[in-house]
Records
---
Amino acid sequence: MTRRGAFVVVEGLDRSGKTTQAEIMRRRIQEGGREVVCIKFPDRSTPIGKMIDSYLHSQSDLDDHVVHLLFSANRWEFASTILSYLEQGKLVLCDRYAFSGIAFSVAKSSQTPISTEGHLESSLEKLSPITLPWARAPDSALPSPDLTLFLDISPEVALTRGGYGEERYEKADMQKRVRNVFEEIGRQVSANAGEAGDGRWVVVDAGRDMSAVTEEMWGHVQPLLDGVDSPVGRLWE
Ligand code: 2DT
């Protein structure tokens, strides 16, 4: 029986070099004669992706829960495509996935804004904050990665790399909260993970020079190049 391809996710904070590293990884895998497909979330090309893009550029405002569900729906749009690539034996390399969805929504919701009068805002959003279990639910049963590489960088080092960009979440305080939620997600994923390559969450120190990060990532991906025997798992199941 031929083996299925491995599903590898690269997660990380802004300025962690995530997208650059994913591209280096793609080239290396291809140069080694293996088939690899790169996917990025959010995928802004679909109608749902366009709504997300407009939101991220602050051209539209949406309730936090709605945004969360849109990001998840955007992943479901590609779930069967991911499965079919894996069945064809291709390695799927994914730039952000459900873990970003949870980290950003929960981090955003953990803000406690103070109104100009000094009272806590009592909008519906604050009455029903996005909790971790709530945030996990819409993504449950999506294809589960065999390996997640989390590129970790401190907000201080991110600032030395030119700071953050123009989009909605690219601010130092938000990035700090996102990092904390990612840490908690990592603990939860690790608690569920099996043997090497079987749903592992690996924290990579992305504050180092680019080639050191590439080599560490490569060390984790290399054992998966020949494919995986076990069936594709389902997220949070
Ligand atoms: P990029 O800069 O990588 O294009 O991401 N985000 C992403 C969410 O809030 N929820 C999600 O489910 C995903 C995948 C992270 C754009 C921003 O979108 C955030 C940064």
---
Amino acid sequence: MRNVRQGPNPPVVLVLAGHDPTGGAGLVADSEAIAACGGWAVTIPTALTVQDCRDVHRVVPVDAGLIRGMAGGLSSLPIAAIKVGLVASSDTLDAVVAIVRDRPGIPVVVDPVLKAGGGAELSTTELIEAFRERLLPLVDVLTPNRLELERLTKGAGQDDTTRAKRLLTSGCGAVLVTGSDDPEVEVPTGEVQQVLYCADGRFAWRWPRLTGRYHGSGCTLAAALSARLAVGESLHEACEQAQAFTWRALTRAWQPPVGQALPRRL
Ligand code: PLP
């Protein structure tokens, strides 16, 4: 007798992201978030990192040929969405762009990981420029925090709305800015605001601000969002559900002896 569970197959989400050995961010975080949201993560490491719970100490991009080879090995799987995280070299960017281009018509969620929460730089000006030119036009939802938004739109203006609109003009489908202080709505102290900019307009959500510092909150949000889109939710619903999921994971985070708290997604 075959021991294969019958029933609908889970939607497969292809994750291209760095490996963080702490499990706070990167591939492990993404896989957990995707599984918890009903998806099946297939994972391709774009970089290996040396880090502790305080900061990233070393990033080694994975060979671009290996990345392409791993993607080829997954070609028989029905991929329903793609999530991209850390892209730490120009060759990696080329491979990621090729892999995304090879799979048109599915949602692509990109978390532009430019700097670690601990402070380490994870990108360069040239790489950000290449990211804007080559990957951004293929993105359905970009999930920058305010700092990433600023760095991706240097010279575009002062406020989040102008900056986000610049990204939309560059070909990105929607931008979900986390920790936004968009002045259109005053955010009460003790709350944090996330704002979605898309073709239908601007939508804001506010969540009680959590104290403490968390590692991998951006990964959790983007991965949950990719899984939600893969199961067929609308952009608005998926953004809302992914935020709720992330907020819950942060409220359940555990505190290692040193460094940032690690979200519990499962
Ligand atoms: N992805 C990987 C592989 C990382 O190493 C990091 C940063 O350490 C991140 C994503 C971003 O995580 P965070 O925003 O918590 O620094």
